[in-house]
Amino acid sequence: MKSLLDITIWIVLIAHLFMALVAAWRVWRGENSLSRLAGLDLASTLTIAVFVIISIIRANIIYIDVAIAAAALSYISTIALAKYISDHRVF
Questions:
Q1: What CATH number is given to the structural domain containing 24?
Q2: Residue 63 to residue 25: CA distance in whole angstroms
Q3: CA-based angle 43:31:88, to the nearest 5?
Q4: Which residue segment(s) compose the domain that 71 sits in?
Q5: What is the pLDDT of residues 4-26, one digit of tens each?
Q6: How many angstroms separate the CA atoms of 50 and 45, rounded?
Q7: Cα separation, 26 vs 81, whole angstroms
Q8: Helices 33-58 & 62-87, crossing angle to 10 degrees?
Q9: Rounded Cα gap, residues 11 and 7, in angstroms
Q10: Cα separation of 76 and 81, whole Å?
Q11: 3-class DSSP state of 73
């Protein structure tokens, strides 16, 4: 049963990495700035999920801490970029 769980976790990791590449493509080739911002937010969320999956695979808790820090940075950057897009100024 453990090997089935390992296979499933690896498949999920590969799927998340593929989806992160698709989101990065949206950031690179988005039609407008809102589309690019949504792609950036999705890519950062998927990166956080990849950190958590790697933490499960390697059984190392340090990746969870990295994921929490990345989530905080992602939240702040998304808010700052959304404010810049709407007002054309950061503060």
A1: 1.10.287
A2: 25
A3: 85
A4: 2-87
A5: 988 999 999 999 999 999 999 99
A6: 9
A7: 16
A8: 180
A9: 6
A10: 9
A11: helix
